[in-house]
Amino acid sequence: MDATFTAEQEEIRRTLRELLLKRCGPEEVRTAVQSEAGYDSALWETLAQQLGLPGLAFPEAYGGVGCSATELALASEELGRSLAPSPLLATAVLGAPLLLALGSEDQRAALLPRIASGELTAALAVPGASLTTALGLTGDNRGDWAGGGRAGGVQARRTDGGWRLYGQADQVLDGHSAGLLLVAAHTGGFARSRTLLFLVRDALGRDGSGGSAGVTRVRLTSLDETRSQARIQLRDVEAELLGEEDESSDVAGALASVGDSAAAVLAAEAVGAADRVLERTVEYVKQREQFGRAIGSFQAVKHRLADLYVQVQAARSAAYYAAWATGAGEERVGGLALAQALEALRITSSEAVQLHGGIGFTWEHEAHLYFKRAAGDELLFGPVHRLREHAADAARLFGGGEVAV
């Protein structure tokens, strides 16, 4: 592993940081999350069309940039510093890789260039609160999480004209605004039970209204407003199977692979957020005075900040290694990096609230944006102890049987 960044990678970080400092401060973030889309559409257009972020990590043949997960992780680290709300995670980290891994050539050619340009956003819809299970981060994803049996979850039924979907998916990231839905559904009944992925195209309609018949979306009120979530109900919805009609397609394996790379990207994003909130806390304790001196000069405060710095740097090292390892083809490293990064963000944001004193306890202060991101991400992608437990079981660290992912 080469721990140094290339000139291109450094340029990605520098350009993004400069842009976000100008256009994505705390007030801009609060304004963006209150919009109908849940993010700043003009900023997303800049990120997509001028910087090429949605297509950063997929091939040039489909309109992408041709970089690896490392570049995507570095970009996400900068987005995490400002908590910039955007559909990048749902579209480029979860949706596009599944299209690449399982989609037919026609599906890739039709959809990926639109994703790369920013014209089309995507969302991965899995039943209930099963996202981390579906991605193989906190448990075996070869079970019946998609809705086994006769009811529950999302069911797919073959008809003469194709496939029809029935059911409900909750906590769908950016599901209220995505133009393309990738839906995990159970099919085959008891005899040939399996989980497949389906495409619901033009889910919003070409003009942003209407869309596929039978699809109902409700944007949910979430703890972390910068991470938009939706409930999607499917009532006899026409869908298209992702990929070919092939019994040998490994949907669970593709989901687990995407989960590992997504965990590495999320770890980098959490590290960026932790680093920024620590910077802001250090700035504050240098200015706030008590008993005639800056509170940052007190030894107890110095020790607390030093501990936070060590924790953030350790999480950064783990995130960078996970991003490199994912690009190099190694597996089962993203979950551990994500656990360490989420823990660092939770502790750092909590300490930031404490060290800011009375002002830190007000909802209006930006420290709460980071605190809620830490809590929200651990609810969505954790908890930390389950990420570590599953990674340990998969690696057979304690002599247990190997977990299939």
Write up what this structure looks like.
48% of the residues lie in helices and 15% in strands. The protein has 405 residues and is of the alpha+beta class. Strands 1, 2, 3, 4, 5, 6 and 7 form a 7-stranded mixed beta sheet that branches. Strands 8-9 form a two-stranded antiparallel sheet. Its cofactor is FAD. It holds the Pfam family Acyl-CoA_dh_1. Keywords: Coiled coil, FAD, Flavoprotein, Oxidoreductase.
The CATH architecture classification of the largest domain is Up-down Bundle
CATH superfamily of the largest domain: Butyryl-CoA Dehydrogenase, subunit A, domain 3
Summed up, the domain count is 3
Q: Gyration radius, to the nearest Å? A: 21 Å
State the separation between the terminal residues, measured CA to CA: 25 Å
**CATH third-tier fold name of the largest domain:** Butyryl-CoA Dehydrogenase, subunit A, domain 3
- The portion of residues forming beta strands comes to 5-15%
Number of strands: 9
Order of helices and strands: HHHHHHEHEEEEEEHEEHHHH
Can you tag this structure with a few keywords?
single chain, Butyryl-Coa Dehydrogenase, subunit A, domain 1, 9 strands, Butyryl-CoA Dehydrogenase, subunit A, domain 2, 405 residues, alpha+beta, seven-stranded mixed beta sheet, Butyryl-CoA Dehydrogenase, subunit A, domain 3
Describe the secondary structure blueprint for this structure:
Layout: H1 7-23, H2 26-33, H3 41-50, H4 69-82, H5 88-102, H6 105-117, E1 122-125, H7 131-134, E2 154-159, E3 162-173, E4 180-187, E5 194-200, E6 215-219, E7 229-241, H8 251-287, E8 289-290, E9 293-294, H9 299-327, H10 334-355, H11 367-381, H12 384-394
